[in-house]
Design goal:
The complex is a heterodimer of chains A (about 325) and B (about 260).
Chain A: E1 4-8, E2 10-11, E3 14-15, H1 17-31, E4 37-43, H2 52-56, E5 61-66, H3 75-89, E6 93-97, H4 100-113, E7 117-121, E8 123-127, E9 130-137, E10 142-148, E11 153-157, E12 173-175, E13 188-194, E14 207-211, H5 221-231, E15 234-238, H6 240-244, E16 265-269, H7 275-281, E17 286-291, H8 298-301, E18 304-307, H9 310-326
Parallel strand pairs in A: 1-4, 1-6, 4-5, 5-12, 6-11, 7-11, 14-15, 14-16, 16-17, 17-18
Antiparallel strand pairs in A: 2-3, 8-9, 9-10
Helix pairs in contact in A: 3-4, 5-9
Chain B: E1 7-11, E2 14-16, E3 38-40, H1 42-58, E4 62-69, H2 73-83, E5 87-92, H3 100-111, E6 118-122, H4 133-141, E7 145-155, E8 158-165, E9 168-175, E10 178-182, H5 194-200, E11 205-209, E12 217-223, E13 232-236, H6 241-250
Parallel strand pairs in B: 1-4, 1-6, 4-5, 5-11, 6-10, 7-10
Antiparallel strand pairs in B: 2-3, 7-8, 8-9
Helix pairs in contact in B: 2-5, 3-4
The chains are: A alpha/beta (about 325), B alpha/beta (about 260).
The structure holds flavin-adenine dinucleotide and adenosine monophosphate.
Adenosine monophosphate (AMP) binds near residues 11, 66 and 134 of chain B.
Chain lengths: ~325, ~260
């Protein structure tokens, strides 16, 4: 059976967690038919020395495409390279992450290959000679099962929907040249605002502490950050009410028109639970809500709720979380 | 947003109000549309607003809205016209497939010879939620594409846009004509004025058959997500914190 091509994402010359999620999803697809996984990695010179984890997670072959321009994404030349490789290799499917970079690449690759694309899926499986995916639609209120026919097909997997799992292969790398010169790309990155490297991204963090207007003032987000700190593996999110007021950047917004997240734990602090906010976080595994209004809609979807003043409760919770983590 | 005269196409999709309580149709592979209210998909209305602001700033230019779907989408196109768009095009198709490439082919066929400087899309449609049709259309037209712009400036045949990456952001530059999909943060859509609503009735709305591409991705099933089991209020104030921490450790196992 035809092999699977995974795209393993890097940024700033480092593999990202979503890379291993894509490889894990590709591995499961390949195993259904005893096929191989080939993983394509773009990065600056030297990235080829950092791809051990890609083989560890199930890539039989790692195709390394190095170019000085690839410390950032260059969608035009990367999509051309993925499509060229997919054509040459006769793959059954191309699997990547539905990260910001993946969402940029996948539709271009699909159009170049004249292949159907299922974007932002939460699961993918082989079903005879078709590929079946589950995809949250209607802002997560309807789960749609889609069937893709033909080969290749393109699938992008929602960050955090797949847990990277080890399925080690001996590391076998092969160099691949860009199919077009990144210098010739028409869209040029002129500036990069890197987030602080220590800060976990909302899409990758196992825990999200999110704040709403109930925090009363921008300064009080310090309490939210402190709790995130106490967990050690948490990112900070916000509602649109808060990003609109400029208390937090737009990139922190969770919801229908913000980021869609599904962490293991979501702590909603002073958030009412508007339908547009729930659209972005309702698939979180465990939800905690702290709100002074016992009737707030957020309590309807929270697993655990505390009624009260978030400004009083957060410092106590932060202390307790620190203590709990230290006693391990 | 500022800049010179530009001719802009905005591709908009008609979607149900997401605050609705959805039901699955008896067929099992569609949403039951009875009683649902429909409107322009959120990000698409930001794109319309962005286009109008560019034209207004320049004091000239044209905004054309394009929507693929059955005759019911005419109401959606009129809404954009009442916001201020100049004319509309319905690409008539009784069905709107989930396969984005099939839609992109029809849009590309319509936009190809339109002489547009900018072709705007929403970042993703709220119903299908693939975020694919814009970049696919760009690819089919051979145009540069910027996905998910949260800021946009157009001047001298060149565009500068910002986009958010996870935990980072980039500023990008590219020549026109170009395809741009619009993220939140660019422009809050205006409400149509009464005057706008009256004027929209007289604006041109062309109806053409949609040249849909082959559909190779189909819906097998639609389901409502399983309800979350009802949660518990653990108590009031800081006194409830120890119980919360205990449950996070023993039951949720996240601590
Ligand atoms: C088209 C559209 C798209 C949208 N997209 C999004 C989106 O992507 N994301 C999003 O979040 N919103 C979005 N919204 C906005 C959404 O409808 C809500 O307005 C928003 O989520 C409310 O934010 P909030 O919960 O912070 O504020 P509020 O609704 O004002 O709630 C504040 C809460 O804090 C509680 N509170 C107050 N004081 C305290 C205290 N001292 N201690 C504890 N609790 C306290 C209150 O009881 C209340 O429940 C969108 C809206 C529209 C129309
Ligand atoms: N039927 C349609 N008619 C016009 N534009 C559409 C249609 N479907 C999708 N689009 C455009 O493509 C964008 C992305 O849609 P999607 O890839 O389905 O998430 C939407 O925000 C619209 O701008």
């Amino acid at each position: 059976m035809a092999n699977i091509l995974a795209v393993a994402e890097t940024r700033g010359g480092e593999l990202r967690k979503v890379a291993l999620e894509a490889v894990t999803a590709a591995r499961a697809l390949a195993d259904a038919t005893g096929a191989q996984v080939h993983a394509l990695v773009f990065g600056p010179a030297g990235i080829g020395g950092k791809v051990e984890a890609v083989a560890q997670h199930g890539a039989d072959q790692v195709l390394v495409c190095e170019h000085a321009a690839y410390d950032k994404a260059d969608a035009e030349s990367m999509s051309a390279t993925i499509a060229a490789r997919a054509k040459d290799g006769g793959y059954r499917a191309v699997v990547m992450s539905a990260s910001a970079q993946g969402k940029d690449l996948a539709p271009r690759v699909a159009a170049k290959l004249d292949a159907p694309l299922a974007g932002d899926v939460t699961s993918v499986e082989a079903a005879g000679d078709t590929i079946r995916v589950k995809h949250p639609t209607y802002t997560g209120k309807v789960i749609t099962t889609l069937v893709l026919t033909g080969a290749p097909v393109v699938v992008s997997v929602r960050p955090s929907a797949v847990t990277p799992s080890v399925n080690a292969r001996p590391l076998a790398t092969q160099a691949v040249a860009p199919a077009s010169d990144p210098a010739a790309s028409r869209v040029k990155v002129t500036e990069v605002f890197a987030g602080t490297s220590t800060k976990l991204d909302l899409g990758e963090a196992p825990v999200i502490i999110s704040g709403g207007r109930g925090l009363k003032a921008a300064e009080n987000f310090k309490l939210v950050e402190d709790l995130a700190d106490a967990f050690g593996n948490a990112a900070v999110g916000a509602t649109r009410a808060v990003t609109d007021d400029g208390w937090r950047p737009h990139s922190d917004q969770i919801g229908q028109t913000g980021r869609l997240v599904s962490p293991d734990l979501y702590v909603a602090c002073g958030i009412s639970g508007a339908i547009q906010h729930l659209a972005g976080m309702r698939t979180s595994r465990t939800i905690v809500a702290i709100n002074k209004d016992a009737e707030a809609p957020i309590f309807k979807i929270a697993d655990y709720g505390i009624v009260g003043d978030v400004l009083e409760i957060l410092p106590v919770l932060t202390q307790a979380v620190r203590a709990a983590r230290q006693s391990h | 947003m500022r800049g010179p005269t530009v001719k802009i196409a905005v591709c908009i999709k008609r979607v149900p109000d997401m605050e609705s309580r959805f039901k699955i149709a008896p067929s099992g592979n569609a949403v039951d549309e009875t009683g649902l209210k429909f409107d322009i998909s959120d990000f698409d209305s930001y794109a319309v607003e962005a286009a109008l602001q560019m034209n207004e700033a320049a004091g000239s230019g044209e905004t054309v809205v394009v929507c693929l779907g059955p005759d019911t989408v005419q109401e959606t196109i009129r809404k954009a016209l009442s916001m201020g768009a100049d004319r509309g095009v319905q690409l008539k198709s009784d069905t709107v497939p989930m396969d984005g490439l099939a839609i992109a082919k029809a849009l590309a066929a319509e936009l190809k010879d339109g002489g547009y400087d900018l072709i705007l899309f929403g970042k993703h449609a709220l119903d299908s939620s693939h975020g694919s049709v814009g970049a696919m259309t760009a690819e089919l037209l051979g145009l540069p594409c910027l996905n998910a712009a949260s800021k946009l400036d157009v001047a001298n045949g060149k565009a500068t846009a910002r986009r958010e990456l996870e935990g980072a952001a980039e500023v990008l530059e590219f020549p026109l004509p170009a395809v741009i999909s619009i993220d939140e943060g660019i422009a809050r859509p205006r409400y149509p004025s009464l005057k706008g609503i009256m004027a929209a009735k007289k604006k041109p709305l062309d109806v053409k058959p949609a040249q849909l591409g082959a559909v190779r991705m189909t819906v097998e099933k639609m389901e409502l997500p399983s309800e979350r089991p009802p949660g518990r209020i653990l108590g009031e104030g800081p006194a409830a914190v120890p119980e919360l921490v205990r449950l996070l450790q023993t039951e949720a196992k996240v601590l």
